[in-house]
């Protein structure tokens, strides 16, 4: 389970993993999306950087989000009752701050107290999955690279997986199967700036550019676009990570102040959408990627997806649905895989992707209703993953 940088709700995937030799087989038994209640989402948005908040508010949000995650977990357990209860629930929770200074990640904070999930379901919960990688010198992101490299295995390289959530991140493999030949990083904003503008313009609306309608109706402001593309973050070498601590509504306000004028909302959304297209396409081209697998909410925006296809002429752009990972729930599937790895004593992140000194088993375990019993650790991770939907 995860609520991403769009902080609009909880994505859930129930995956049944079975290992056969070096291949891991995963059956996606159930997926679901649970929106946050309007009032909770508003409180969360009001507490996120750069807004000031209090420890009391963080404590309350930790409980309220934990309870919503518990509701989503209980519904998922009920939905798969015929195949039996899960061995483990993995809760990424809700990121509220990712501390990066001087190109190095120093800390990260996800809230959504896992004890509520364990109490509600009786199932052990793995949470706080990013911080161990950070303590080993990594960025704690992108953790989806573990799933990406397995999905990309066998494709002629270079091939890449791109996630268009609030932030865009990409994993690139060279096609040799060498885990040390993987690179990954957060590219920059995907939906987060557009969402901030849309939510400000229409507080009672959906909070995003539905079907890319605003972007399609607007005209790109080339001067503003050039200013955005010159952001120093893009000059940093990977691995690197970012989030709403940098790319947020105040970031757009500051950019407009430097511009000295405010474009119409549709023109601003069109420009920010092109900003995502151009920044992503620039990194994809620089990596020489021949096949690009796309997931995340942004791939449902036709202006964004068509813009990428037009900008990446010569690169095959496909949705991860074609590889057994539904594009809207791929991150939830990725954290199910992280949980499977931790449950079997295996590292859940690739040091080549995160920048860590070495592989680490990820997460903190909260026991369920009974004693915590883990299976015997496995000696080596799987080399390939075959995902299917349904039994």
Automatic annotation (TrEMBL):
GO biological process, one term: 1,6-anhydro-N-acetyl-beta-muramic acid catabolic process
Pathway entry: Amino-sugar metabolism; 1,6-anhydro-N-acetylmuramate degradation; Cell wall biogenesis; peptidoglycan recycling
EC number of the protein: 2.7.1.170
Pfam short name (any one): AnmK
NCBIfam families reported in the protein's UniProt record: PRK09585.2-6
Protein purpose: Catalyzes the specific phosphorylation of 1,6-anhydro-N-acetylmuramic acid (anhMurNAc) with the simultaneous cleavage of the 1,6-anhydro ring, generating MurNAc-6-P. Is required for the utilization of anhMurNAc either imported from the medium or derived from its own cell wall murein, and thus plays a role in cell wall recycling.
Family recorded in the similarity comment: Belongs to the anhydro-N-acetylmuramic acid kinase family.
Name under which the protein is recorded: Anhydro-N-acetylmuramic acid kinase
Organism this protein belongs to: Nakamurella flavida
């Amino acid at each position: 389970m995860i609520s991403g940088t769009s902080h609009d709700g909880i994505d859930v995937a129930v995956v049944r993993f079975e290992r056969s030799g070096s291949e891991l087989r995963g059956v996606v038994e159930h997926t679901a999306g649970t929106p946050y209640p309007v009032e909770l989402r508003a409180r969360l948005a009001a507490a996120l950087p750069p807004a000031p908040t209090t420890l009391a508010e963080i404590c309350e949000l930790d409980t309220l989000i934990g309870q919503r995650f518990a509701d989503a977990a209980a519904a998922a357990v009920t939905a798969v009752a015929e195949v039996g209860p899960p061995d483990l629930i993995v809760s990424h929770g809700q990121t509220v701050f990712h501390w990066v200074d001087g190109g190095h990640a120093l800390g990260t904070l996800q809230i959504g107290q896992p004890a509520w999930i364990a109490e509600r379901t009786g199932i052990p919960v793995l949470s706080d999955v990013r911080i161990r990688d950070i303590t080993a010198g990594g960025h704690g992101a992108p953790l989806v690279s573990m799933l990406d490299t397995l999905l990309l295995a066998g494709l002629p390289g270079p091939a890449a997986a791109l996630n268009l959530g609030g932030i865009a991140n990409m994993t690139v493999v060279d096609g040799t199967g060498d885990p040390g030949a993987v690179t990954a990083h957060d590219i920059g904003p995907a939906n987060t700036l557009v969402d901030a503008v849309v939510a400000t313009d229409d507080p009672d609306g959906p909070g995003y550019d539905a079907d890319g309608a605003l972007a399609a109706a607007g005209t790109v402001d080339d001067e503003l676009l050039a200013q955005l593309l010159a952001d120093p973050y893009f000059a940093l070498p990977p691995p690197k990570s970012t989030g709403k601590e940098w790319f947020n509504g105040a970031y757009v306000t500051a950019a407009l102040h430097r511009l000295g004028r405010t474009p119409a909302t549709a023109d601003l959304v069109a420009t920010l959408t092109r900003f995502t297209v151009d920044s992503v396409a620039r990194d994809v081209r620089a990596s020489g990627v021949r096949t690009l697998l796309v997931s995340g909410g942004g791939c449902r925006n036709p202006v964004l997806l068509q813009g990428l296809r037009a900008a990446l002429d010569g690169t095959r752009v496909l949705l991860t649905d074609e590889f057994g990972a539904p594009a809207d729930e791929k991150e939830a599937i990725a954290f199910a895989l992280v949980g499977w790895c931790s449950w079997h004593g295996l590292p859940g992140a690739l040091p080549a992707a995160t920048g860590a000194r070495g592989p680490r088993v990820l997460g903190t375990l909260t026991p369920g209703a009974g004693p915590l019993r883990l299976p015997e650790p496995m000696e080596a991770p799987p080399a390939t993953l075959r995902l299917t939907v349904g039994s």
